[in-house]
Design a protein that fits this description.
By secondary structure, the chain is α+β, with helices and mostly antiparallel strands. It contains 21 helices and 23 strands.
Length: 600
Amino acid sequence: MADQIETNDYENGWKVLEELTENGHRIQEQVLEEILMRNAGTEYLSRFLHGQTDKQLFKNNVPIVTYEDIKPYIDRIANGETSNILLADPISEFIQSSGTSGGQPKLIPMTAENFEKKTLELTLVDPIVKRYFDGLEKGKTMSLFFVKKGSETPSGLTVRTLSSCYFMSDSFKKSAPKICTSPIETILCLDHKQSMYCQLLTGLLRRDHVVSISSIFGSVLARSIKFLEDHWNELCSNIRTGCLSDWITDLGCRNAVSLILTRPNPELADTIEHICGNESWEGIIKKLWPEAKYINSVITGTMSQYISLLDFYGGGVPLVSPSYGSSESTFGINLTPLSNPYDVSYTFLPNMAYFEFLPVDKDRGEKAQESDFDGVSSQWSSEITNANGNVGPVDFANVKLGQYYEVVVTTFTGLYRYRVGDVLKLTGFHNNSPQFQFVERRNTVLSIDMDKTSEADLLKAIGNAKRHLEPLGFMLMTFSSYAETSSIPGRYVLFWELKFKESTRCPKLDAKIMEQCCSIVEESLDFTYKSLREANKIAALELRVVKHGTFDALMDFYVSKGASINQYKTPCCIKSEEAVKVLNSGVVEKFFSSKTFFLS
């Protein structure tokens, strides 16, 4: 039904959304029925269903799994076996996950039909934003999109990221000139520095026609603004002379930019120079692109650390987090674009996959010494194991307001009762479709001794600490952490990159203030951490402040290891010794918590 939508027909788009959400329960049952009709005879499902397509049998017999459980099947297909060991439809390619949020990259099967279904999400976002922002059809989006060179499996199947798959598709190549300021050649350039430079240049040349700014993740937009800080003088020189810098050697970029940079424009160069030459870059996006009505970028989950920074740069331009998805599946879209960025909820789309939800007892603490899946306690795992189809995961129709859930997905492309690893909170309903707020990736971020600190706990603790700095004019640009266990007792180490609001130069940090920040982080962590600190089984938290550009170097490191700049997420916790070395190379000052804990 929803597959019939026309991209520019936003009235029809709203109609489709209403039909989908009003009939969510029925559509979910149809989706599961269709998946089983197609795939019950595969080697994987035959082990549990014996060729039957009964939905209740599926829920009773098919286990809830992680990627490691299906990886042997993925590997067999990658090495040349037919895809029907896992799914009936032929695999067109493998989608590679970013690998920066959950460990090693994963290979997720993709079919031609499923790719078309995923692009539907983009057509449904369009009618939503047009209801909230007028005049979008009169301009273009200044896009900051990038692609990554793909690879091949031994059997010859293409492996690439989902964003690269989309940006290299014929449908995007056809639509890009109508909606983006960036020529398609600059987006498809494999040299990310040349690509970013040319996309910013064409965005500045067309600044009066820019009605929105777009990147996939907030981290990419934040990096692009920092890149602009470092290159605005050169960009102005190009605009002033009408000549592109010699170091831009990609022929596609040079030819495409030459069609836009057609003559010297000293007046525009003076305007941009005047704006960028200010000591403070507060509101720089609004000043450079005065007609921009919103910023389109995912800023939930770990990306929420960039909200205050993008607010600072945005100068009042609303931040819109459009959708929630992953390499495995599309989940939902944001029906209220103007909601507080910290409180975004996504309405699940019932036709994208079959969804189940594992209840999570947030108040139970989930702090176990043993862990069988990314920090999920063994107590929680046994509850799932003992469910026998009657207790445990619930479906679309049985989720409860205010409850926390871990999402489980069954797709058309060979994922059956697959734990994505995301914890969500049910915040409401749109018609009969649930609306969820993203809470955290369900994995242990930091771990020493018996303590396991989650992503959500760490984000909250750092959020409390950074508020101590903001009245002094400092902003936390980005952060990461790692567990230092080379000495006994071990300690948690934070890396912060700071920015001074009023100037590009950062004044000397007050040691007392920074030590207080360390103490605030520790005070914000849970009882287990505090008790281990009291017993001297964890040493005082350390904060290492790094110089400007250090986290850019970290992104470059991960990109050099195969990550996609488009899908890059700054890891909350670093486990790679090489990555820690990158951050340590930029350390300019160190501070320690002076907090003493007496809990008894």
